[in-house]
Amino acid sequence: xxxxxxxxxxxxxxxxxxxxxxxxxxxxxxxxxxxxxxxxxxxxxxxxxxxxxxxxxxxxxxxxxxxxxxxxxxxxxxxxxxxxxxxxxxxxxxxxxxxxxxxxxxxxxxxxxxxxxxxxxxxxxxxxxxxxxxxxxxxxxxxxxxxxxx
Length: 150
What we know:
Elements: H1 12-19, E1 26-31, E2 34-39, E3 43-49, E4 52-57, E5 62-65, H2 69-75, E6 81-85, E7 88-91, E8 95-99, E9 105-109, E10 114-117, H3 122-149
Antiparallel strand pairs: 1-2, 3-4, 3-7, 4-5, 6-7, 8-9, 9-10
């Protein structure tokens, strides 16, 4: 079935600009003997692999940490990150399209990844996407009005 594009995907400049508006602080991740801060807004997707989580970043790099996806979910901004499936969390700033199929709903991200949405979570996921997009429109209107007033 044909892809349904909800809105135009955001450019890197828009992601950087919007990230500050969505309370997305740096994420401190544990490594062998030290901790490292990573910019939360540059995370495209998190993928659960047992007791590990693989981070997929906007620049194409990946990073594995020894924390479960459930633990990582509690550290992320719930306004921007959603969990469409038990193995994945996606950043809505990088959402490209939603693809309905007769059996399975999936989403595509601007880095080319495609993630399935579980049937149980599909309606909640769609509500979260619509709420996020409404907030983007509100932010866009606010920025436009601020520029006009200046």
